[in-house]
Design brief:
mainly alpha, 87 residues, Non-ribosomal Peptide Synthetase Peptidyl Carrier Protein, Chain A
Amino acid sequence: MADYKDALTDFIKQEILHGRAVTLAEDQDLLSAGIIDSLGILRMVAFMEERFGIKVPDEDVVFENFQSIQAMAAYIAQRKGTAPVTT
């Protein structure tokens, strides 16, 4: 899942923040911090579908799945079937 987090972080820094020097924590609330807005979510969906080969259905475009880098990485892992099994 680290690869997902690295790719998401790089995309956010380069494409959403346009290279501005901002420290991003994996669990930082990107929406509340104003780092990602509704247009940013659409850009994240397009990136995730292209980069990771997944389909993000409309019903999955919810706050919980895009709140943080950690949440997005977990969502990608779940869609790809590589999410860790919890008991």
